[in-house]
Amino acid sequence: MSSLPVQGAQVVSRVASLLRIVGRKPEGSPLVELVRESGLTRPTVHRLLSSLASEGLLDQDAVTGNWVLGPEILLMGSVASARFPLEDIARPSLRRLAEETGESAFFSIRRGDETVCLLREEGSFPVRSFVLHEGVRFPLGVASAGTAIMAFLPEDEQEELLAGWATHAGRFAAAHTEARVRESLAETRQAGYSVNPGLVLEGSWGMGAAVFDQRGRPAWALSLTGIEPRFKGERQQMLGRLLMEEAHRISTLLTRSPGGA
Fold first, then answer.
1. Which SUPFAM superfamilies does UniProt cross-reference here (predicted)?
2. How many CA atoms lie within 13 A of 102 on its CB side?
3. How far is residue 214's CA from residue 250's CA, in Å, rounded to a whole number?
4. Where are the domains of the chain?
5. Fewest CB within 10 A of the end CB: N or C in the chain?
6. Closest alpha carbon to 114 in 8, 36, 17, 207
7. CATH of 84-260, one of 1.10.3720.10, 2.40.10.120, 3.30.450.40, 3.40.50.300
8. DSSP one-letter code for 172
């Protein structure tokens, strides 16, 4: 009898993992990728995918065979958005950043030990970085949004992540070494904004600023991405100032909304 809750929790965890993996990319994921990323057996993944599809939570693309998010997810998201009016609050700031800088602007949320990109606004500059888009997840401390958030977490939470850094950062650990991350966190706290000098993808730079909730905790982040020459020198300082101004504006608005607590 005592094993039933554990089994049930295990199923929920597996389902949530598959949904997160599928939701990382608009084009979805093939079965082989889902098996590899989830660490589950092929029969188990196939069984769970079929069950999710029957409930409308997933679909299988008839052309590519990829598994993609289903219509029920859209409905759930629409209902959730009424409680968390993030797009209404953050979108104007993203548009201002994209218009003033010409770079692509993003709004990400902290989910556990990760950041998830929620919103994107493309800038006018013709050369863009495609590292980030809606649904992309990074470990905290990786990329500019995750660095901006982690830098302003309580010290004990930072140290907990850093203690198991290689496991936490995963495939990003080689470029984001513990020593380099510690240095970046310190620089972010001093400047007020983070800079990622092409550590996720060579030549693709990012900058971020944390957005705070009512308790003063970093819960979201604004970021800009683009090519290296546009993120250096005096322009970097200008981009940082704009990011912090818009982050402060969103922090103020979010703390007044029901979803900002």
1. GAF domain-like, Winged helix' DNA-binding domain
2. 10
3. 12
4. 3-75, 84-260
5. N
6. 17
7. 3.30.450.40
8. G
DSSP state of 125: -
* Coil vs helix vs strand at 209: strand
Q: Tell me which residue of 159, 110, 163, 118 sits closest to 139, measured CA to CA.
A: 110
Instruction: Give the predicted TM-score (pTM) of the model.
Output: 0.73
Longest dimension (CA), the chain: 65
The one-letter amino acid code at 241 reads: R
DSSP SS3 for 176: coil
- Is residue 208 a contact partner of residue 221, using CB atoms and an 8 Å limit? yes
Let me know: does 56 contact 71? Beta carbons within 8 Å: yes
Q: Which helix (H) or strand (E) is 27 found in, with range?
A: none
Q: Tokens 């991350």: give the residue.
A: 181
Asked if CATH classification 1.10.10.10 holds for the domain at 3-75, the reply, yes or no, is: yes
Q: Do the beta carbons of residue 139 and residue 170 sit within 8 Å?
A: yes
- By DSSP bridging, strand 114-121 and strand 104-111 are antiparallel
Q: What is the pLDDT of residues 179-192, one digit of tens each?
A: 999 999 999 999 99
User: Around Cβ 78, how many Cβ atoms within 10 Å?
Assistant: 9
Query: CB atoms < 10 A from the CB of 55, how many?
Result: 9
Helix residue spans in 84-172 (DSSP H): 86-101, 143-151, 155-163, 165-169
User: How do residues 72-112 score in pLDDT, each as one tens digit?
Assistant: 887 777 666 655 667 889 999 999 999 999 999 999 999 88
- pLDDT digit string (tens) for 113-161? 999 898 999 988 766 666 677 788 899 999 999 999 999 999 999 999 9
